[in-house]
Design brief:
By secondary structure, the chain is of the alpha/beta class. It has 24 helices and 10 strands. The chain has a domain of 153 residues: Rossmann fold, CATH 3.40.50.
């Protein structure tokens, strides 16, 4: 976009970072970009035809102006004057209508391309592995999905069309200028270098100011995001820091305002300078034309020709200045597509095999055979995990913090893939199974229950979209949450809030259990989240979990001794392997890792739970 006064403005420059990360122009990259334009080539042809017509028709008012002066005014022909004025008005109207048509088609093309790319990106991201979302910043994902892809619109309707339009305008204007008077055309073009020099100098200053201003705006946005979010605003209130945060905001806002005013002031002076130079061209043409006529060195030159030349030279300056931006606009456009393609090119190593196997998982053993896994090659996490969970049994996994308990269970639904060994269900390696079938038959209740910002019914139906009201109620009764839902004025239509914030921890957990019950999985993975709950909520959840696990093969990451005691077998994870295995009494007798965990964690939690129960009884 041209800066004030028609100059290049700050857009005419690349930042140091942009120069450093300047994308390499390759045939493959260009063809890939064109592949998104290919489905709309008929519309693009219409746009280019409209641009050429607009550029050609746009010449006519200037040429007609010359005839008005020479033939109508000098010849004192009123009829011809009216005809030429009407013709000039008609060509202007036609040019504007063509411009509107071109803009409409351009907008339609760009929006359809954005539609296609967003669909492709969303589908691609949906199938990326879990590791992608744990390593990538959520803000970066949203930026790629929204800002970057939406920026394609400016590339299509701005950069591409602008280049074609400016080239067409420059070419048609030069042809018309040199056809009328090559001498005056050269005189008018002398000013062009004068437009470039100040633009480069002032534009760099404005770009620096704009960059600083943007940095401060980013700082302001960060502060707004942190202090006005649900958690941030709560923290501010609890520590009574409203005045301090307001003072910080005022300081940042004042700096943003100062830089904005400084940038605008430089732009105004820049506009004045550029305005003077753009007016110099017409003055030189009037001088040269007047000298040719007065000195009679060119008897064919007329006042009308001079007038038309001035109009055309003014029409030439702006697109010439814009075309000086081609390299910058082209580089930024390529950089935008490159950022988008970086995400598209990220491969998903966890994919479903063609004709993946679908074994019976209801009566199938789960086997971890010498499993090796690591998030970081230099920091091995699981080195030799080996155990079998018989069908219909419930195994508890315990271990020190950071020992890899959650990682062990995440390998079963293939949130991650093993680096060595194998995980099998019913003798079939999970990597050979149909991925959708595998995950459909595994139910997971995690420590942090995630709910979408919708109604209770909508969150439950996520597990089974065609579930009946009776099925929903039965699932919620099993999960000990139906009574709470019925007590709400809106019942199952109650809004749970962002991430379920309108519900307590226990209510969210029980709702998550009800959702898994609706799914009716063959295998259960439970990462208990009762350690931070009160005893009443914990008891309700424990009852719900027992009902859920009945008759199902289950692996539980246990935090409560009550759960551990009910397990058919306890697996103790330490140093990347199963260090101990057995029931509660036999493991205590070994005086090993489990005994240490019992003494330091489980017994303390058990005592706290007993104290909570006594307090609840006394209060009642």
């Amino acid at each position: 976009m041209p800066g004030p006064g028609g100059g290049l403005g700050p857009r005419g420059f690349l930042t140091d970072e942009e120069k450093k990360n300047k994308p390499k122009v390759t045939k493959a990259l260009l063809l890939r970009i064109l592949s998104y334009l290919k489905p709309y080539w008929p519309q693009f042809i219409l746009v280019f035809v409209a641009i050429l017509l607009s550029a050609t028709v746009g010449l006519l008012p200037s040429i007609i102006t010359g005839r008005i002066v020479d033939e109508a005014l000098v010849g004192k022909n009123m009829k011809l004057l009216i005809q030429l004025l009407l013709a000039a008005f008609g060509t202007l109207t036609v040019s504007q209508v063509i411009g509107v048509l071109e803009s409409y088609i351009n907008a339609w093309i760009s929006q359809r391309i954005i539609f296609d790319m967003k669909n492709q990106m969303y589908d691609h991201l949906q199938h990326m592995p879990h590791a992608f979302f744990t390593s990538e910043k959520q803000g970066d994902i949203i930026t790629r999905m929204n800002t970057d892809i939406s920026g394609v619109s400016s590339v299509i309707s701005g950069t591409l069309s602008s280049i074609v339009s400016n080239v067409a305008t420059v070419v048609t204007s030069l042809i018309a200028l040199f056809t009328m008077s090559w001498q005056l055309a050269l005189v008018g073009m002398v000013v062009i270098p004068l437009l470039i020099i100040p633009t480069r100098s002032v534009g760099q200053t404005r770009w620096k100011l704009l960059t600083e201003s943007q940095g401060k705006r980013d700082e302001m946005n960060q502060m707004i995001n942190e202090t006005l979010s649900v958690s941030g605003s709560l923290l501010v209130k609890l520590f009574a820091r409203e005045e301090r945060e307001y003072a910080r905001f005022v300081d940042i806002n004042e700096e943003v305002t100062r830089l904005g005013l400084k940038e605008q002031r430089s732009g105004k002076w820049f506009g004045v300078i550029m305005g003077m130079f753009t007016q110099l061209g017409p003055l030189l043409i009037y001088f040269a034309g007047g000298w040719f006529i007065i000195a009679k060195s060119d008897t064919t030159l007329t006042v009308g020709t001079i007038t038309a030349t001035v109009a055309l030279i003014n029409r030439l300056y702006r697109p010439v200045q814009s075309l000086l931006n081609i390299q910058v606009d082209f580089t930024r456009s390529l950089a935008l597509f490159t950022r988008i393609f970086e995400y598209f090119d990220m491969k998903n190593p966890i994919v479903s095999k063609d004709n993946g196997k679908k074994p019976d998982m209801k009566h199938a053993d789960i086997r971890y055979e010498h499993v090796v896994f690591s998030y970081d090659p230099e920091k091995p996490l699981l080195t030799d995990v080996d155990f079998t969970v018989p069908a219909g049994k419930m195994y508890a996994i315990v271990g020190p913090s950071g020992s890899g308990k959650s990682t062990v269970v995440n390998l079963l639904p293939r949130l991650y893939d093993v680096l060595g060994g194998s995980v099998t269900v019913g003798g079939v390696d999970v990597r050979d199974m149909d991925l959708k079938y595998l995950r459909t038959n595994i139910g997971v209740v995690t420590q942090e229950s995630y709910l979408f910002n919708g109604t209770i019914r909508e969150n439950l139906l996520y597990a089974k979209p065609d579930a009946t009201d009776r099925e929903l109620e039965e699932a919620c009764k099993i999960a000990n949450i139906h009574g709470y839902i019925e007590s709400q004025p809106e019942g199952y239509e109650t809004i749970v809030g962002n991430r379920g914030l309108k519900l307590s921890g226990g209510e969210k957990q029980r709702l998550s259990i009800a959702r898994v019950i609706l799914k009716d999985p063959k295998i259960l993975i439970l990462d208990e989240a009762t350690s931070a709950l009160d005893s009443i909520s914990e008891n309700a959840i424990q009852e719900a979990l027992e009902r859920l696990m009945a008759g199902r093969t289950s692996i539980v990451i246990a935090h409560r001794l009550s759960t551990i005691l009910k397990a058919d077998r306890i697996l103790v994870v330490k140093d990347g392997a199963i260090a101990e295995s057995g029931d509660h009494e036999s493991l205590l007798a070994q005086n090993g890792v489990y005994r240490e965990l019992y003494e330091t964690q489980f017994r303390t939690i058990l005592e706290l739970g007993s104290a909570d129960t006594k307090n609840s009884q006394n209060n009642s």
